[in-house]
Amino acid sequence: MIEIPDQFKEKFTGLLGQEEAGKLLDSLAEPSKKAYRINSLKEGAVVYSQEEAVPGIPNAYYGGVSGKDPEWTAGMVYSQDPAAMFPAQAIPVKPGDKVLDLCAAPGGKSTALAQKLQGEGLLVANEISPSRAKILRENLERWGVSNAVVTNCDSFALSARFPGFFDAILVDAPCSGEGMFRKSEDAIKYWSQENVDLCADRQREILTEAVKMLKPGGYLLYSTCTFSPEEDEEIVSWLLDEYGFKLLPIAAEKAAPGRPEWGNGDASLANCARFWPQDGVGEGQFVASLQKAAGEESFAAEAGEVFSPVRKNKDKKKKGKGKNKGNRSSLERPSKEESCYISEAIAGFNWPESLASWPSQMLKSQDHVFVPALEPEQLKGIKVLNNGLELGILKKKRFEPSHQLAEVLGQVDQERVVDLTEEEYDHYLHGESLQVNSSLKGFVLVSCRGMIFSFGKLSGKGQLKNYYPKGLRQ
After folding, report:
1. What is the mean pLDDT of each run of 10 residues along the chain (474 residues)?
2. Annotated binding residue at 106?
3. How far apart are the C-alpha atoms of 472 and 374, rounded to whole Å?
4. Which residues have a catalytic role annotated?
5. Is 103 annotated as a binding residue?
6. How is domain 6-291 classified at the architecture level of CATH?
7. Is 105 assigned to a binding site?
8. Disulfide: which of 8, 36, 105, 332 matches 132 by Cβ 3.0-4.6 Å?
9. Taking the domains of the chain in order of start, what are their residue ranges?
10. What kind of fold does domain 414-474 have according to CATH?
11. Which candidate, 221, 170, 183, 166, places its Cα nearest to that of 30?
């Protein structure tokens, strides 16, 4: 039985009244609800129940998933609180947009935004915590996302590089976590009104930088997993008063409208959506969808063309030929010989249409070969964990394809695949090499129940060498 702080009870009894506050407190003693989303970027049949859909979210269902199943390792499903699925659903994003997920870890919202982009445009997924940023990168990699840049910095560093750049920005802000009481004892332990006020101050700081990065007419989605007006309606009121945003309505079944009286009294605050745990959707969530006023690009950066990095890199090489000799960190095109190693290693695989021109786009940095999602010059001064698609690594007279590439190639039908039995799959996850019945030779994709989750390498005698990353082995 969880112990809710008395100050919290008093606060929400005053805000909601005795009856509604009682429903909230009673719901906090109930089990939390689990749900998952199916990855629309990939095709395949998952074995999990699809009997109860999450209302308003495409391809989302109530139920638990296992991190040991091929559905998970192949990036077919993502486990996520059902209420937390709504922010990415509510923000207007279309293929070709430039989108920022500012507080992105562990990646639930970023993977949903990537689905909306469908491999076109750009997703910058940022997380200030190094350990959480690593998890974010792993989840986007598993999801098969090739048009994302994963960064690890604060909002001030990003706004300095990307003024007026993004069509849409999602800020799922750090908050007091009242909506996580059912799932986290720490959320209860560390709750206080003082912490609520500190979080509200931090949210204004983060949003101030986010506004700088948004194009005129662009969309800002603000969300929290908390109920307090100080972090919800009052923050949205501040955005309306300070920056002249327009608050857009949100269609969300079972969500309660925002409370204008909890903010500045603006009637449009009712367009916000709040998910209470007693509504039966999931944990707590507050969502506000806003649009920036249209106008001149007063401080838009010369951000460069997002998808022409190779051409620009070639021009720079001509102008500065020889200047970076011996600097292994400098970017360059793979040599003709290296390009042959790359092509030979990954010949025979089918590619998503969005990556059809990968041979002309690839760059090399310290023997790592990648297809950038964003001009590397634009990322100077930013800590980048991943830029686009890492193809693999050049070694002595050979090339080894990356795990990310395997997950991306899982989006399309493939012929060079070894499909494992459930027993073989378990052994492969442990890092074991296998003896399989296949006439293929060289690098192959490895799947289970038709779901691709790794590369392997076949010898002529059917020995499948294990290339599943050591850090992911179970």
Report:
1. 89 98 95 95 93 96 96 98 97 97 98 97 98 98 98 97 98 97 92 97 98 98 98 98 97 94 98 96 96 68 38 38 45 95 96 95 96 95 97 96 98 97 97 95 97 95 95 93
2. yes
3. 27
4. 225
5. yes
6. 3-Layer(aba) Sandwich (3.40)
7. yes
8. 105
9. 6-291, 306-315+325-413, 414-474
10. 2.30.130
11. 183
